[in-house]
Amino acid sequence: MKSMLTDTERGRIDAAVRALEERHGLQLVVAVVQRSDSYEELPWKACAFGVSTAAGLLMVMLAGGGGFEPLATIAILLASGATAALLTVFWPACARLFLSRYRAATEVHQYAQSMILENGIFATPDHKALLLLVSLFEHQVVIMPDRGLVPYLSQEVLEGVISAMEPHLKKGRIADALGMGLQQLEKPLSAVTPGAAGGDLLPNILEERGQ
Asked: Rounded to two decimals, what is the model's pTM?
């Protein structure tokens, strides 16, 4: 899989993660995922939209006195649907038009949970671990603290961190988004009582293709 971060960016993020861990005695994992689900329904939604839009335009033209052969009409409808479906496959921005924000948030959240289980992120001795996950296709960020950090990271605090990251993420500046997130986490994490786990128990950066 092609890395989503350059070597320079990985080095910068890794250094920032290590610094946070050392200052506050916790474990932090930054994850970058290409997409959290395959969303197999999106091409079909786009196809239906393309066909219905073409049908509406044809009806308007017919009402205006235009005429089409039946075979030509069918060909236009099928071509419109197929074109719209293909656009969702090769153009992520088009695919996102047919993806609800709720569905995207649900899938990214579930992916984050599976990553926590697979990598034992919530199995540190003092449960002071944190997952910061960015899912690129969905333009979504999930921050999941283990129970030892929950008192320091309220939902309001997490939403503020995510809001600061989103402008960079939408522009495709992944490393800048991650750097901003780590920077925003510095203040609330400064109140954490250092843990007793010690050492670098978890990978600092994970990159996955996803679904």
From this structure: 0.85
